[in-house]
Amino acid sequence: MTLEMEHWDENRYMELNTYFRIKIQGMVDSDPYIRDLRKSEDGLQLADLINRMSDSDQELWKEFIKLDRIKLHLDMQNHLEGKGTPYTLRHGFGSASSDADDSPSPW
């Protein structure tokens, strides 16, 4: 396991995932600039949302992206080794049964 993989923190990943899910939905619903971008010819890009975040939220976003890369690596490694939840087109590496329970699923 590489040094980067040692920094995996599933609880922190889920915390940040939930935070940004709510944060981004709030921005899309309430920020007039973001609403205008959604209607524009070029549409809304992720960078547009990140650029509208506070400096502290941008730092949290960087932390989230680092954790997300680690998660993707671990998911791919588990998939290739036949461990964990198999990859599907509909759910990615997520569980198909996550819709049935109350636990939040990551994006």
UniProtKB/TrEMBL annotation:
The species this protein was found in: Pontibacter indicus
Lineage: superkingdom: Bacteria
Protein name: Uncharacterized protein
